[in-house]
Amino acid sequence: MTTFRTDIYLKGATMQVIYATVHVRDEHKAEFVDIMTELVTKSAAEPGCGGYNLLQREDDPNEFAFVEFWPTEQGHTDHCNTEHFRTLFPKACALIEGEVEGITSNVLV
Question: Where is the ABM domain (predicted)?
Fold first, then answer.
């Protein structure tokens, strides 16, 4: 599912983009995808979310990335306080091998 909303961007606002990668062991992959599918679906429906996607590498099916677009910092803050994030994200993290490697960037152009 690809989700990207253009209706909520504020002209001249700085948008945060979060890109994080994780490695999931093969035996946990299906459960991880199920949890993240629910998280992505619920997060993308939040009023402050500009887009939220789960990606899987073609050359390593146990490597995943999630990409989040937040037109305002408040939107991301609100997201981190939702019930679905506070419940589902720790469940997904329990299935990850190693650390979540992520960056937060601001869109320039």
Answer: 16-104
Write b or e for each residue in 44-73: b if 16 or more Cβ atoms lie within 10 A of its Cβ, otherwise e: bebebbbbbbbeeeeeeeeebebebbbbbe
d(CA 62, CA 46) in angstroms, rounded, equals 28
* Section 77-100 average pLDDT: 96
Contact 26, 16 (CB under 8 A): no
CB 19 within 8 A of CB 105: yes
Report whether 84 contacts 43 (CB < 8 A): yes
Global pTM value: 0.84
Max Cα separation, the chain? 45
Task: Give the Cβ contact number of residue 78 at 10 Å.
Answer: 16
Domains annotated on the chain, with CATH = 16-106 (3.30.70.100)
Per-residue pLDDT of 3-41, as tens digits, reads 445 555 555 556 789 999 999 999 999 999 999 999 999
